[in-house]
Amino acid sequence: MTLNPARPAQSYLPQMLLIGAVLLFPFLAYFKTAASIVAIWDSSGTFAHGYVILPISLWLIWGRRDALRAMPVQPWWPALALLAACGAAWLLGEMGEVQIVRHYAFVAMLPLSALAILGLPIARSLAFPLAFILFAVPFGDVFIEPLINSTANFTVDALVATGIPVFREGNSFSIPTGNWSVVEACSGVRYLISSVTLGCLYAYLTYRTTWRRALFIVASIIVPIFANGARAYLIVMIGHLSGMTLAVGFDHLIYGWVFFGFVMFLLFWIGAIWREDIAPAADAPAAPALPDAPPASMARLLPAALAIIACVGIWPAYDYYLEKTEAAPAPVVLTEVATRAPRGPAFVDWTPAFPTASAELQQFHAPDGQPVGFKLLYYRKPPEGTKLITTTNRLSPVKDPVWRTITTVVRDEAIGARGLRLRESSMSGPSGKMLVWHWYWIDGSTTSNDYVGKLLQIRQKLVHASDDGAAVMIFAPYDENPEPARVAMRAFLKGDLAAIEAALAANTRHR
């Protein structure tokens, strides 16, 4: 539907209101999901740019209003299948408490709703403004750990190449003038997200050929990664050369943003050399105005609008039904596990950075004189924001850690005749070093992979209407060689893993 000068705008008002209702309906149906996105924008400076994404998309769409007038509104029915797929993905994300899936599924419904009600020609013309809305999703935490590692590697290698001796332990390192640590704020994820978002917008506005747009977007990904490594190295060098009087406090962040701004200025300045958005010469003949397309009839729009609303709204309605019919969760009780290994004294004061569990159990043992402990964190119907599996759950907190995680690797251990894949973390704290084996226990299955764990949770929710799950952690101290700790934990699990899992299984509830 477009406005025709020959007819008053009031004659199109019903169609315009119907299209507006269809485009706004996802915000109403998925209000909690939309609110959770805004809450992340509000709480994290990394994703504060989300506030301007939708206004920018609307501004880009407004800029194409003249071309859109000549395009007829023709609802595209195949888009309903895509909307239904997004709704199903949202429901699975809701069941598995996978926030990123919920967010992307919801936001993807906005351009898909426009595709379904406005039609393929209009959606194709607005492809970038509609796709740009996806940048509103607060995504990027998954890159923090890899970026921390790459920044630490770059900084240490650059220091060594400069002739400065470095002693490294995980992502912390020492040089003759002081100690440094690469933490989340140093990862550069904020720079990367900002660069990619601005880079895509700049490439769309500045270039016309696809290869130039793609090349600039690739540059907007690569440049901030290397620039962040250089930034970290320069900050360490400023601190080193100033005797640890500069770049060791708040000025650390100021220098970082100034350097990043300079690098981005260079990137866009160089990119402008090959720009393709120069306006045509003034004496060039003007293109003839295209006639306005006739408005779409209500007989064509109404069935499509109702079908779109049904495809979008059925999933949160079904989720609401499941919540109302689900029985109230029973309390979880984890009693002391009767193990073969003798009990021993507590040898460490350590609390992992996990949210408060429905039930928690910790025991210390001393098989063959080697201290071994285990911790169970059992979750059932946790409150909003409390999850068994999430990127924010760590063995040590990011800020002000008493214990620091040095390294984490995936290992396959043979526990008797059984194979067990787990994550092994080396930790350093006030009482020395400690080795931690940790994995998830969900509906009788074990995994050390977050994604597999989420799939197990979804399967359990669909089959048993249960969201029970537990984090299992086995730990032991060591000096310099961790192998004696591995031997002790391996022997402990061989005798008592079955008893630990039996204690977990005793609480598992199925419908």
Calculate the terminal CA-CA distance, rounded to whole Å. 51 Å
Tell me roughly what share of residues is in helical segments.
40-55%
Shape: flat
Q: How many strands, what sense, and barrel or not for the largest sheet?
A: 7 strands, antiparallel
Query: By helix and strand content, what is the structural category?
Result: alpha+beta
Radius of gyration over all CA atoms, rounded: 28 Å
User: Secondary-structure element sequence?
Assistant: HHHHHHHHHEEEHHHHEEEEEEHEH
Oligomer: single chain
Low-confidence blocks of residues: 1-7, 279-287
Number of strands: 10
Averaged pLDDT: 86
The total tally of domains equals 3
Count up the helices: 15
Beta-strand fraction estimate: 5-15%
Organism: Massilia antarctica
Main location: membrane
Transmembrane segments: 12-31, 38-62, 74-92, 104-120, 126-144, 214-234, 254-274, 301-318
Keywords: Cell membrane, Hydrolase, Membrane, Protease, Transmembrane, Transmembrane helix
